[in-house]
Specification:
This protein is mainly α. It has one domain: Tetracycline Repressor, domain 2. It contains nine helices and no strands.
């Protein structure tokens, strides 16, 4: 059963995915949700609790998108499939929100630092699971997931500034390198 808090969390996450976290103000957020800032604070302890909930909801959506991917036929294809998934639509917006939270967390701002640290562990597990399903040895999964994710984050940061063709070529090079380096189990 969905509670009012759950409904507000989903709506607030959609709002943050559209408008970002920097400068997030409760009044415009509440207005867009058809409620008041006081009611938001009734359902969420404070603004930090709301932000924590938004980040967790966004991360859960991202991980579900990875888990919903059918197994890739091989490791190279897995990297390409992962990129196709994280670089488009709702997944891309979730990734951008994560990068924004990570940047704020770098400066020690809470709840960003804690939430990003927790999100990383879960996210790496989702990526590693997809790579293992494509034939990667479980012992190598975390290492490869970290490599792939690091490259993806860099590419996502450059996405508005780079050509789509250059990004496709870079991802293909990454996929080739991963497939050449790690032999399937």
């Amino acid at each position: 059963m969905t509670t009012r808090r759950d409904e507000l969390a989903e709506g607030a996450t959609d709002y943050a995915l559209e408008h970002g976290l920097v400068g997030l103000s409760l009044r415009p957020l509440a207005e867009s949700l058809g409620t008041s800032d006081r009611m938001l604070l009734y359902h969420f302890r404070d603004k930090d609790d709301l932000i924590t909930t938004i980040l967790r909801t966004s991360n859960a959506r991202s991980m579900q998108g990875i888990r919903d991917l059918p197994p890739s036929v091989d490791l190279r294809t897995a990297v390409l499939d992962l990129w196709r998934t994280v670089s488009r639509g709702d997944q891309q917006r979730c990734q951008r929100l994560y990068v924004e939270a990570a940047a704020l967390g770098l400066f020690g701002r809470e709840p960003y630092a804690t939430e990003v640290r927790e999100a990383n562990a879960a996210w790496m597990s989702a990526l590693a699971g997809h790579l293992v399903a494509a034939g990667l040895a479980r012992a190598d999964a975390r290492r490869v997931a970290e490599l792939v994710d690091s490259a993806f984050v860099g590419l996502q940061m450059d996405q508005p500034l780079d050509s789509a063709a250059r990004q496709r070529r870079t991802v293909a090079d990454l996929a080739d390198a991963v497939a050449d380096r790690w032999v399937p189990s």
